[in-house]
C-alpha cells in the first residue's frame, strides 16, 4: 500500500491512489491492514488479464512511483489541529488528486496546490485555496465543515459527481477531523485561477 508494489515485485497500476497512501504513517497503514484482514473472505475469480498497452502504462507508473516521499511528517511550527488537517488532506482525503491541476505529463503542478483541476470525467474540480475571487476565500471554516459533513455549500446547493463520493467518506469522519481539514484549507496561500469560471 505504501509503494504500489505486489509481493511478487511487480508494480500495481495506479487506479489505487498510491501517491496519497504513500504518505500514511506506519501505524495507520498497519491499522488499515488489520481492518482488511477482518473483512470476510469472498471467493471470486479476478477479471481477465490486461492488454499490452496496459502493461506499458504500468511500467510508466513504476517510474512515476519512485519519487514518492514516504510517510508524512508533521510540521513542528504548526499546532496539532493544523497538522491533523494537513495529514488527512495529503493522505486518505487525497484532495489534490482532483483539486490540483496537472502538467502535460499528468504530474500534479505543486506550485498550484489545490488551485483547481480539470477533472478526469469532464467536470472541473474548483479552486479550494482561500482566494476570494476564484477560490473559497469567502467560506468560513464552518462552511467547509458543513460541506464535508452534508455536501451542502454556503449557497445551499449540493455538490455532486466525484465530490459527492468524497462527501460519502468525509461524512463519516469525526467533527474534529472535519474541523482540522477546514483549519488547514483556510491556512493555505490563496491562489488565483486564470480560468475563473466559477463563483456564484
Ligand atoms: C475525485 C475527485 C475529488 C476529490 C478526491 C476531492 N474533490 Fe472536492 N470537488 C470535486 C469536484 C468535481 C467538485 C465540484 C462538485 C460540484 O460542484 O458539484 C468538488 C467540490 C469541492 C468543494 C466546493 C468548492 C466550491 O467552490 O464549490 C470543496 C470545498 C471541496 N471539493 C473540498 C474537497 C476536499 C477538502 C477534499 C479532500 C478531503 C476533496 N474536495 C476531494 C472533486 C474532488
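-> sequence recovered:
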Amino acid at each position: 500500500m505504501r509503494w504500489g508494489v505486489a509481493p511478487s515485485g511487480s508494480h500495481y497500476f495506479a487506479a489505487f491512489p498510491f501517491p496519497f497512501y504513500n504518505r500514511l504513517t506506519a501505524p495507520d497503514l498497519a491499522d488499515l491492514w488489520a481492518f482488511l484482514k477482518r473483512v470476510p473472505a469472498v471467493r471470486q475469480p479476478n477479471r481477465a488479464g490486461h492488454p499490452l498497452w496496459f502493461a506499458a502504462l504500468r511500467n510508466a507508473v513504476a517510474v512515476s512511483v519512485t519519487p514518492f516521499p514516504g510517510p508524512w511528517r508533521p510540521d513542528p511550527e504548526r499546532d496539532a489541529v493544523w497538522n491533523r488537517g494537513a495529514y488527512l488532506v495529503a493522505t486518505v482525503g487525497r484532495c489534490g488528486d482532483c483539486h490540483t491541476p496537472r502538467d502535460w505529463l499528468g504530474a500534479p503542478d505543486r506550485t498550484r496546490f489545490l488551485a483547481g483541476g480539470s477533472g478526469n470525467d469532464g467536470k472541473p474540480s474548483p479552486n479550494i485555496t482561500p482566494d476570494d475571487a476564484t477560490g473559497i476565500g469567502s467560506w468560513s471554516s464552518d462552511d467547509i465543515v458543513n460541506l464535508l459533513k452534508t455536501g451542502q455549500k454556503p449557497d445551499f446547493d449540493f455538490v455532486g459527481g466525484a465530490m459527492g463520493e468524497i462527501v460519502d467518506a468525509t461524512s463519516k469522519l469525526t467533527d474534529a477531523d472535519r474541523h482540522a481539514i477546514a483549519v488547514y484549507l483556510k491556512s493555505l496561500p490563496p491562489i488565483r485561477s486564470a480560468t475563473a469560471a466559477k463563483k456564484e
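Residues 89, 93-95, 97-99, 119, 123, 125-126, 128, 136, 144, 147, 153, 159-163, 166, 170, 181 surround heme C (CB under 6 Å).
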